[in-house]
Structures are given as structure tokens and as C-alpha cells.
Amino acid sequence: MLNDDGQVTPGSLPTQSGKTAYPPLQWRPLRVMRPLHKFAFIAGLLIVWPTVVRLVGLVVSPTAVGLISNVLWPFAIIALARSFRGPDEPIVPPRPWWRLTARPPAGWVLGAIYTAGELIGLIFPVPGSHDVVAVVGEVCGLFIGLAFLNSSIRLTLQRRRLQ
Length: 163
Prior knowledge:
The protein is mainly α. It contains four helices and no strands.
């Protein structure tokens, strides 16, 4: 069903044999609901990002490229995560600034992976690779992990208050 704004309301699409029906991809503002579309956006980011970094590397020093890409990576991940929507999540209104996942378990897993990986990199650096670019990259990755953990903590608290 379409609402007054011409948007598909969650849960209003017909389903076949208990499967979750997802609204179509919305470009403006970007809302990605289907798991296959989410996979495609993540794959696209993982293909486009290194290409852009290499092209920028043709005109900028390697240290500057490393610093720029390490600082911009969290913004790309957070922007993509904020445009993804869960099956029962409203499509049109923006998420609260802190929310990165539809449900807490996804944030716990992603936060744990990012945080553990970056903490291991900071505590046990690979010999010869602990320069400024590596440290900035690990701190930015740690920021992503903490952002996902923050999202899950707030979602968990929010759901407990509603019960």
C-alpha cells in the first residue's frame, strides 16, 4: 500500500508462503531494504573504494592517500548502514543519528568484529607497520566498531523500556 507521500508502507506488501516481502529500492533518499540489494551495495563499495583510492594515489602522496581513505572510510560505512532498512522499519523518516542497524544482534556482531580487530591491531601491531597511517586507520576502524556497539546498546535499552 502507498501512503500519502507515495511511499510503500512496511509490512503492506503481499507475501508468498510466509516469506518477508520487501519494498523496492528507493533512491531519494537512499533506502535499501532487500538483502540482495544490501549485498550489492556492500560489494559495490568494496570494488569502487580501492579503485578511487588508487586513482587519488596518482596525484597525492601515499601517506596522504592513506590518511584520507582511512578517515573517509567510517563515513562511507556509516552512511551505507544508515540507508539500510529492516523489514519492519519505517522507510521515509530518517533513523535517529545513533542508529546503524534494524535490530541489536547485527550491531553486536559488527561492533565486536570491528572493535576486536582494531584493538588487536593497536595492541599487537605487525612489525614495521605501526606508522601514522596505520594508527589512524585502526582508530577510525575502532570508531566504526564503537558506533555499531552504541547503536545496539541504545536499541536494546529502547526495546526494554517498551516492554
